[in-house]
């Protein structure tokens, strides 16, 4: 009857209370068949209890146990991801979502369920958990099911059944079972599923809690006992209490002895045929690879694992997501361990650690993967700062060292980061100033990850680093002596300190073989090349762009991966040597004229593997027999080593065939010999004969080298072959570099042939020099039919060509400055970029987009383009604009090319105009470099219209005369993208605003306001109107004449004669015009 009453209570109204309170029983009472709500409902407390009373049963969980409670306050009740508060006798409910992961040990102030009821009322709450036996009688824990789980059907959802029959069926079921009745098998299955999920959630909660207190976030410390809040905290180490270590088993100690020194590394622990991750590493494996955490493994702690067959794939996935990964391998088999005693534990050791910047396996792509170490030196008297750096490409087994001198803008550091594009950057935490660290973050446009070196891994002084290199015989396999390389580096001690930090870091990662067998070279960021800082590379969209077009993609027709890497290096270092530029152009021209040989080259290059990295992999395996002694792992590495060696030999043969093909062509041989150096290939002692011996050995000993299990005897043969090949590593590297150069030069030729517009061979002249005579040779930039190489129109055609002519007649008074005006969107920025790109292409040795191109060599390109800010570093748009301009004013020379676009727009009109005027005048009269200055400050055109060194031009536009409207504001503006003489009358901002969708009423109001402002502001610029016939330079000349006339000496210096000559030239021109 009790069961019948509980069911009937949902089908009829409650009877009035008689005042007697029923006894509270501890026996379980079966609840109703109502499901949990799929989406937790939020019901705000108000004075409408009837709204909740109709759905109150929906919040009860279906379970066999129900308890009554009669306390005034129930504490510690929490659902997973849910906070429920009941108050005022159950009439008012608040349901709020909480983050997952809260546990019942927290106090009620952090989200416990609080239920307040009136003493005269009783409530029953179905729970899947029983009351905690030692706590309050009212303490319980709710378990919130997943939202998408189907629940049992409610009474309202059942088919219509007579009431008497339904009650009779329920009574029969109650007598047959101790649990509440289920309507059918389908409902039972759903309930079991819900219970299973509840258990799963409970298990996951227990799995995410570590059994080690010293791993809890609040207790974790580094090896020196410092907590994460300490500025000196070392996140790479872990403090484990001695008593905790003493209680560990032998295998546990093996793992934690390594892990406490490599907390920043995910460590796979080899156990039999599996690799396992524990505790914090297990959480990462669960998060990144979706592996299930279990309580087992070493010491019955949290762990995830993978079999031997899946370890390589798992490691590559974790590295691709930015993690460092190491392997603790077994040094012996279980049988070998048992032979030392029945209780002996298998010896294990950390073999090597892979990081995103040191990986040399898997699909790492064609781009170079670099690890960069940087060391800041002292500040010089002029305020400049010295930096030493060293970086490594572990896949190619190459190291580079160098130094740079930088100013407060850190432009050289930005150039280094753009050129190297490191995956990781390491530096001394106390050895790099705060400004330098901020600059690294700000200028790090390639997404590199920065790491600080600890005191134990600090760079050290130069003497200490030299001692370490000598003691460990590092760089023994380098083709050049490391001492000779460093002696050729400016500030070599600083570069050596950076190299020491890099060596220390690689040693910690167990990569001593890389250091020992690696080649080392010096690296120049600027010296001897066209200088472009990091911001210039960004502004010109050399490597990155929001769209698809970049200079690198335009030139990248390389077939080999090593060719693509060399192409990027060449783009970062355009030449200044005219002879070298012309030598490259000769090869490109010959390739364009001989399509047949270019086709043969392409066919051979397509068969070529990445021989540069293969040579590095083979060299790194030289004299590294320790890893081969490991059980199981050794045979796998031997198989990989044989495959790499065989692929290298086959690849070298293909490359040699290509070089010998070119040597048979006299024309190509003559031009190529000036660009590349090819070792002796044929004849006695040539590489051809040498390579044939390796091919014969592979054919006889390892015919199936790509999938061959190497035996012990074959391993010795392979070791001898590798040793013999590495003996001539320098000559192989020279040959590979020649192959890469041919691939890049062929790419230049293909770019010129496949271009959609006119291309020409540039005529590059040496630097402008001042002669002993009165005449001076000025820089020249003369381009006809110039177009942007990858800013194509909608149909893929070339943009409108234009002519840029600066310094054409060699006179000191010839304009080398272009003051450019024109409407917004008229093509000014495109023209500026196209000019810079043409210079870069010409000094790379490429053909230039245009009909003709003549220029004297440019030493530095400066660009001030676009409007950007860096909010996170507190740098406004105008501040960045001024800093870039300051770099131009401090470093520009007569042979530089300067591009300034809308300087002064980040501040007020008068301040902006004043800055633009002062900067423009300084560059024109003091520096006299090739300058393209785009502006919307039209008074500048009046101020410098008569200046003999300034040329005024604008981007042409016109109005659509077919429109019916007579108002100029409403007429459609047509951009012609054609460079025209003279200044543009206005910037047509109203028309651009209308094109952008600003309402016509607003545009018309702005047009009226513009006219009023023009009349008011125009009074301030009336003096500039007088400059049309008398420029600032004329003032300087007049002052010079007056000063010369007052001197009593008759022996004038050259500067005085130059001024007189310029004045004579101007007077002569004025008379001719009049």
From TrEMBL:
<feature type="domain" description="DNA mismatch repair proteins mutS family">
    <location>
        <begin position="896"/>
        <end position="912"/>
    </location>
</feature>
<dbReference type="InterPro" id="IPR027417">
    <property type="entry name" value="P-loop_NTPase"/>
</dbReference>
<dbReference type="GO" id="GO:0032301">
    <property type="term" value="C:MutSalpha complex"/>
</dbReference>
<dbReference type="InterPro" id="IPR007860">
    <property type="entry name" value="DNA_mmatch_repair_MutS_con_dom"/>
</dbReference>
<dbReference type="InterPro" id="IPR000432">
    <property type="entry name" value="DNA_mismatch_repair_MutS_C"/>
</dbReference>
<dbReference type="InterPro" id="IPR045076">
    <property type="entry name" value="MutS"/>
</dbReference>
<dbReference type="Pfam" id="PF05188">
    <property type="entry name" value="MutS_II"/>
</dbReference>
<dbReference type="Pfam" id="PF05192">
    <property type="entry name" value="MutS_III"/>
</dbReference>
<keyword id="KW-0067">ATP-binding</keyword>
<dbReference type="GO" id="GO:0005524">
    <property type="term" value="F:ATP binding"/>
</dbReference>
<dbReference type="InterPro" id="IPR036187">
    <property type="entry name" value="DNA_mismatch_repair_MutS_sf"/>
</dbReference>
<keyword id="KW-0547">Nucleotide-binding</keyword>
<dbReference type="InterPro" id="IPR007696">
    <property type="entry name" value="DNA_mismatch_repair_MutS_core"/>
</dbReference>
<dbReference type="GO" id="GO:0006298">
    <property type="term" value="P:mismatch repair"/>
</dbReference>
<keyword id="KW-0238">DNA-binding</keyword>
<dbReference type="InterPro" id="IPR036678">
    <property type="entry name" value="MutS_con_dom_sf"/>
</dbReference>
<dbReference type="GO" id="GO:0140664">
    <property type="term" value="F:ATP-dependent DNA damage sensor activity"/>
</dbReference>
<comment type="similarity">
    <text>Belongs to the DNA mismatch repair MutS family.</text>
</comment>
<feature type="region of interest" description="Disordered">
    <location>
        <begin position="1"/>
        <end position="39"/>
    </location>
</feature>
<keyword id="KW-0227">DNA damage</keyword>
<dbReference type="Pfam" id="PF00488">
    <property type="entry name" value="MutS_V"/>
</dbReference>
<dbReference type="Pfam" id="PF01624">
    <property type="entry name" value="MutS_I"/>
</dbReference>
<dbReference type="InterPro" id="IPR016151">
    <property type="entry name" value="DNA_mismatch_repair_MutS_N"/>
</dbReference>
<dbReference type="GO" id="GO:0030983">
    <property type="term" value="F:mismatched DNA binding"/>
</dbReference>
<dbReference type="InterPro" id="IPR007695">
    <property type="entry name" value="DNA_mismatch_repair_MutS-lik_N"/>
</dbReference>
<protein>
    <recommendedName>
        <fullName>DNA mismatch repair proteins mutS family domain-containing protein</fullName>
    </recommendedName>
</protein>
